[in-house]
Amino acid sequence: MCGIFGYTGEKKAAPLVIDGLKRLEYRGYDSFGLAVLDSDLWVWKKKGKISREKPPVSRRKGRTAIGHTRWATHGEPSDTNAHPHTDCRGSVAIVHNGIIENYASLRQELLGRGHTFRSETDTEVIAHLIEEHSGGDLLTAVRAILPRLEGSYAILAVAEGYEGIVAARQGSPLVLGIADRACVAASDVTALLDHTDRVIYLEDGDVALLLPPGPTIWHGGKRADRPVRKVDWEVEEVRLGGFAHYMLKEIYEQQSVFSTTVRALYAEPVPDVLKDISGITLVACGTSYNASLLCQYLVEEYCGIPVRAEIASEFRYRTPPGDDLVVGVTQSGETADTLSALKKARMHNHATLVITNVLGSTATRVADHTLYMRAGPEISVAATKSFVAELAVFFYIADVASGGRLRQSILSGHEAIGEALLEDLSPAVDICKDAGSIFFVGRGPFFPLALEGALKMKEITYIHAEGYAAGEIKHGPFALLSPMTPVVALCPQAESYPAMVSNIREMKARGVPLIVIGDGKSQELRDIADVLVPLPGEDIVSAVLGSTVLLQLLAYRTAEALGREIDQPRNLAKSVTVE
Ligand code: G6P
After folding, report:
1. Are residues 474 and 357 part of one domain?
2. Does the reported pTM lie above 0.85?
3. What is the pLDDT of residues 258-282, one digit of tens each?
4. Which of 193, 208, 425, 515 could hold 215 in an S-S bridge, CB 3.0 to 4.6 Å?
5. Are residues 125 and 207 in the same domain?
6. CA-CA distance, 174 to 204, in Å (whole number)?
7. Mutational test site, ligand 1, from 335, 378, 387, max ligand atoms within 8 Å of CB
């Protein structure tokens, strides 16, 4: 969702802020803008993408600037609604990530006192509130008005005649970076890596003044010390490195991601929180939810522990049972619904664990315990390698809770990923690219994979796709089957195989083009399928990982054939920080 970036230091700030915004593009946005502090305050903003609109900054020499990528919530995407927003006189500029829930009443109040509004956004009230404190300095003004704001925010503010950037955080992510004779701030660390690996995660309620050599932070009226952390991600990891898209790069990284995550988990003693569990409730969204559902099948099958996977946004309407360990699964660690679910679990006195990819993310501060998935920075909106890293964690949990039943297959799991990467999917892509709608079906642990295959397909190709439990497709969706609705069926050699074969025969009889992922040597599958994609490996770990990669590649290659904007699909955001 919205991204913010700020720089104050010795260099010309505008080009650095534009580069910072480019690093945040992956979060998803529809408009962008920046404010440069010079002898005056210069603001430029535009609907559209940074690469196309080229901000005219060559003559802007200021050494302090803030910028924003906007994902519209209040007011349509437009030049006027883009950030930064200014006060009536144009002497204060604000960028904001989050939602000011009481903005309508604040706006009425400010209009009543003669302020003029230009945009439809909730953010603009902040600039006008600051304007009313213009007698003092910017830091004092920001601290004075924050108690008036209800909702969530990460804010950067600059003002004419005031040196540095004022930052504030409440419920939306904001990270500060300490660089060489510069201070930087951004919505996430990937945008800071060009400048520094030394970062400070602000806490809710913190206000900071950014000035080289480093920020000064206040909390509740007092100075606050926040630890400086070293990020172990490299700047190369957020570069394309010769791939056409980040998604493809991240799909290809999965072999090493799986091995790295597994190795790191087995290198440490089993965390106490995973010992003697009586039940697990997993809460997650999107791809992380699909991985969680797969965990439910795995852990119940191998360990006999009751597990349920819940969509995080629905969890608020449920009460977690008994003394379940509640596990938040979130690549970013910033998904608002998952954070709320974890908070609710804590309110009900449940022990909480978060499985996340981002060191220092909000979720790591909300949950009692953290397990890192070590996928490295994931830039493409469509999650791929974080799914595989989540699966690595779940295989590990199932293994340790079952006394090592999966260990051997886990240690060789990366091989199936490597084999799947070599498959030529062109015949399957030819079927999918012209489809009006695609069904993905599977049984057992392959049902969550069918959901994930469909999610990948719809996210990046814009073709309607649905994941279904294969046995359930007779109960409704059968009415939709036709030669325009291809079916992708996951048919591994598993307990579910005979039932899957019956299901796909029934679907084939309704005229669907049938893509089967299964044993490449099976004459039976060859006879039924229009396209048979060989699935590497024989054990559950290999079959799950191999299917995952094949489904990701099928979506990617179909989107490529359709010329879609793969890394930043329309209307989607990488990290959804509003409920
Ligand atoms: C967004 C992203 C998805 C992701 C989901 C959950 O919808 O577009 O790719 O799976 O959020 O994100 P999380 O960071 O919590 O795993």
Report:
1. no
2. yes
3. 999 999 999 999 999 998 888 999 9
4. 208
5. yes
6. 10
7. 335
